[in-house]
């Protein structure tokens, strides 16, 4: 019996690699003779860098950059010298996991540190940038990233905008003279875990702002600020990018990646599956177990479990999801190829307990699922 373990990370708990190891422990309890293939996954969000480092044998590099609140932090990135490709994960520099609940501010967090990582990659001679957009603490439409790369965002007083998406409402002028010219010479691919537009009810602020600390009133203010930013960009570039699917990724950073960096937007899970040779690994499996922190209606927009389930459905392999929480609309996952889905909780439990016990709970669920699968076989 061959079991493919392909989880994403469990936010604030385990990396994808750690989750795969916890699942493997449970499988071995139930079926010591099983052939286990641990295949950590990602869809563009935090943890995707780990999956790509493992799959591509790229070198891990570490840099000191600014986090979402402007504090110095260590951020990892990947470098493949042979292809001169840099893998840069937004969450490494400006990830939500770096901030406590009390520190999260959608109004004033900045993507500046992500721009710093891009510059570092260019300094290394990168000819191709793979930008992993997900898990961000920021909601600034990529303004901080642009400023780090030399774009001047100026208000009515002629001074540079302060950090944070809310300040985009004061944008008067965009200066291009100091934009890093090396960006014109590289291929840029932006890997996304969502397909939201920039503004509106399904936009970056409305959908993701609350988890970054925004109140309903602040969401409305941020959306207006983004609309103004999109207007100014449209006036400058002659094209309106706000409604393109995916530009709302990473607090709207996808918008600036397309408009200013000419990045190609790519569905995250599909790109990562290609990198790790997932199709071949799945063809040799009798069962695939995947999962992440939450499974709900938003998961259908391109999250890891759904991408894996769709692929598994095509080749007739059962796909089981273990989620930290089953949210509203998760049942739609059955239509996408999910065979069954389970919540981690083994009873009434607080979020802190679930977070601290994530590995133990994954192991227990994997053991139960494997025993059931053996019985079914």
Automatic annotation (TrEMBL):
Enzyme Commission number(s) from the entry: 2.7.1.31
UniProt KW keywords: Kinase, Transferase
Biological process (GO), any one: organic acid phosphorylation
GO molecular function: glycerate kinase activity
Record SUPFAM superfamilies: Glycerate kinase I
Superkingdom per UniProt: Bacteria
Protein family membership: Belongs to the glycerate kinase type-1 family.
Name of the protein in question: Glycerate kinase
Lineage, broadest ranks: Bacteria, Pseudomonadati, Pseudomonadota, Gammaproteobacteria, Oceanospirillales
Encoding gene (name): glxK
């Amino acid at each position: 019996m061959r079991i493919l373990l392909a989880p994403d990370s469990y936010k604030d708990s385990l990396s994808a690699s750690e989750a795969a190891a916890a699942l493997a422990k449970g499988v071995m309890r139930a079926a010591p003779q099983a052939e286990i293939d641990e295949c950590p996954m990602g869809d563009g969000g935090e943890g995707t860098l780990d999956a790509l480092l493992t799959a591509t044998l790229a070198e891990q590099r570490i840099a000191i950059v600014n986090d979402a609140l402007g504090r110095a932090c260590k951020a990892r990135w990947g470098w493949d010298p042979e292809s001169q490709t840099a893998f840069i994960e937004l969450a490494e520099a400006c990830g939500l996991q770096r901030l406590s609940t009390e520190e999260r501010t959608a109004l004033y967090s900045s993507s500046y540190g992500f721009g710093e990582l891009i510059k570092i990659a260019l300094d290394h001679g990168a000819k191709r940038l793979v930008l992993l957009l997900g898990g961000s603490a920021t909601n600034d439409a990529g303004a901080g990233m642009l400023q780090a790369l030399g774009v001047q965002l100026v208000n009515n007083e002629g001074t540079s905008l302060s950090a944070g998406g809310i300040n985009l409402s004061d944008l008067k002028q965009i200066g291009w003279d100091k934009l890093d010219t090396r960006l014109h010479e590289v291929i840029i691919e932006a890997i996304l875990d969502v397909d939201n537009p920039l503004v509106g009810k399904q936009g970056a602020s409305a959908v993701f702002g609350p988890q970054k600390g925004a109140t309903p009133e602040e969401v409305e203010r941020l959306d207006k600020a983004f609309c103004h930013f999109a207007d100014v960009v449209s006036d400058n570039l002659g094209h309106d990018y706000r409604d393109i699917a995916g530009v709302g990724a990473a607090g709207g950073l996808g918008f600036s990646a397309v408009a200013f960096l000419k990045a190609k937007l790519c569905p995250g899970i599909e790109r990562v599956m290609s990198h790790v040779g997932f199709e071949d690994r799945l063809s040799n499996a009798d069962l695939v177990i995947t999962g992440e922190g939450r499974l709900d209606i938003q998961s259908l927009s391109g999250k890891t479990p759904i991408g894996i389930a769709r692929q598994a459905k095509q080749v007739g392999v059962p796909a089981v999801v273990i989620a930290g929480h089953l949210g509203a609309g998760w049942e739609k996952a059955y239509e996408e190829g999910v065979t069954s889905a389970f919540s981690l909780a083994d009873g009434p439990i607080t979020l802190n307990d679930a977070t601290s016990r994530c590995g133990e709970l994954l192991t227990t669920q994997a053991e139960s699922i494997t025993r059931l699968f053996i019985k079914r076989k």
